[in-house]
Amino acid sequence: MKGIGTNDRDLIRIIVSRCEIDLHLIKREFYDLAGDSLEAWIKDDTSGDYRELLLSLVRTNL
């Protein structure tokens, strides 16, 4: 995913709106398509408090 850049608006919308519904399916599909976990991609492509917020949402098991 390096070089593509992060579309922050889409990333936030998808993670926040789907974290309680089907984020586990999105994470699995992301891995199948990207060959890496969504969590690893977030760690690599974001920073600071923004990174920690997204990782907290992605790691939530609701």
Automatic annotation (TrEMBL):
Pfam families: Annexin (PF00191). InterPro entries: Annexin, Annexin_repeat, Annexin_repeat_CS, Annexin_sf. GO terms for cellular component: cytoplasm; nucleus; plasma membrane; vesicle membrane. GO terms for molecular function: calcium ion binding; calcium-dependent phospholipid binding; phosphatidylserine binding. PROSITE patterns: ANNEXIN_1, ANNEXIN_2. The keyword Ligase does not apply. Keywords: Annexin, Calcium, Calcium/phospholipid-binding, Repeat. It comes from the Eukaryota. Signal peptide: none annotated. Transmembrane segments: none annotated. Belongs to the annexin family. A pair of annexin repeats may form one binding site for calcium and phospholipid. This is Annexin. The lineage of its organism: Eukaryota, Metazoa, Spiralia, Lophotrochozoa, Platyhelminthes.
